[in-house]
Amino acid sequence: MSPRFALLACLFASGVGCQRTPPQEGAPPLPRVRVAIVAPAQAVRGLRVAGLLSAPPGREVRLSPRVPGRLSQLRVAEGDRVRAGEVLAQVDTVNATAELQQAEASLREATSALEAAKEKRARTDVLAEHGVAARQDAEQDRSAEAAARAAEARARSALELARRGLGRTSLQAPFDGVVTAIGVRQGEMVEGANPPVVQVSATDPLELRAFVTQQEAAAVQPGQRATLTVDGLDGAREGEVAAVSPSVEPQSGNVLIRLRFANPGGELRLGATARAHIVMASLGSALAVPPSALLPQEDGGVAVARFADGRVHRVPVQVISEDEGGAVVQGPLAVGEPVVVEGGYSLPDDAGVEVLR
Questions:
Q1: What is the pTM of this model?
Q2: Where does the record place the CusB-like beta-barrel domain (predicted)?
């Protein structure tokens, strides 16, 4: 090989061996996450129950007239709100009115007879004192007056019964509430309590009726605080445990508990399914985070991803309670610290992230 060719070959080989790799276009983008701020909370030991909303005992009644007859007026429909004393329905009053008029006439007759007997007895007493009438006649007139007085009392009682009978032809709301059922249509005959004409239920307060196990019922006491949530309604309602049944439901072996909640605006509806959380004991201060901040650990525990200085660090926590509104936890966190609530599931510890605003 000639020296010149050897030099060219060497230069070519040197050029190939010294060629540089093109520079990278740039570092990969950081994972994007959203964060939320840790808030203060109270840790409590509680019990979650579900059931149906209903009127308290004695605050749901079925009304029927106490006299038979044709339902001449029906003034309400299902869903109507009524006030205590409001007339809801009326049975035909023809017979009751006739009986009242007859009783009034009988009382007038008895009153006149009593006045006449009193006057006759008074005259006989005067004559007897002057020796004109016999003492026996005076005694007979006194007996006649007593009989007239008794007849007048019976007539007065009959009039009172007739007035009550006329009052029984109307159905009045016993308390403020809502009409929840109509059993008879206007114009139909009514006799007895089956079927009832109108059902009225009170709506403030309402009670949540729920069944719990006997073990759970042992820790529930009247007066314990409770919060109520209902699908379709924002926020929670505050209430308390009203009663714990002393008996066990024979078929299921569970115990009925009743929780009472104020309902002045009527937003809570009778028969609606609702959930409640009963607070049975306070466990001290805790922290509140959104449920989406909770991350499962390989050891079966739970952690949150704390954000600081552009990086995330997993911090193990203990979940005290959790629902759709938030999670109450205890752990090495501080109020006001940001934690990842979106995009944190697959991030390794100490990963750099970009926070979306």
A1: 0.58
A2: 209-279
